[in-house]
Amino acid sequence: MKLITAIIALAAGIATTAGAAPRNADPDWPCQQVKVGELSVAAFWSGPPVDPSASGWQNNDAVAALVAAVTQRRLPMEAATQRIDAFAKAEARDQTLPLVFAGVFDVLNREREKVISGLDRFGQRQKTLAEELRQDGEALRAAQTANPPDDAKIGELTQRLLWDQQLFESRRQSLSAACDLPTIIEQRLYGLAQAIQAHIN
Q1: Which residues does 91 contact at the CB level (< 8 Å), separation at least 6?
Q2: d(Cα 19, Cα 25) in Å, to the nearest integer?
Q3: How far is it, in rounded angstroms, from Cα 193 to Cα 186?
Q4: Residue 38 phi, psi (nearest 5)
Q5: Per-residue pLDDT tens for 124-171?
């Protein structure tokens, strides 16, 4: 009996927690970090005017190769900066470095948008699961108070609630690292932009 009561209380608590979005946030946003939907070029770049979506940076093989390398998060920032430095010494920097930034912004902004979309979907799934937990908790309470109690249904709902609760908590524990990803991408974008601009006259 105590286990059943605890499960019902837990289901109600999870549903309440999942529905509590940070103030002024998207209701489906699952992170404590403030959601910033779009990045602005001006927030990262003070060099010559750049339009990443129309720059055609992919058409320059050297630029495209550099962008592909330095936007990989597994490449340490120090190594990425060294590659940018070497590129700037070998190329006509005032013409090609704005293209490099355009490519870096384009690639990392798209990557970040995918992460944001994935987090939104994650938040929606968690809210759906929390609502299912709440409904199953109510059904369990009803089965418990039936006269006579529905032992088969109590057993089924108890197992379902325990499984869904474990799934919910497992997802929530993995959320912290995922919520940090947009900021990590923004930090890399900022660092690369600074490294590129250091070579522009």
Answers
A1: 62, 97
A2: 12
A3: 10
A4: -130, 145
A5: 888 888 888 888 888 888 888 888 877 887 888 888 888 888 887 877
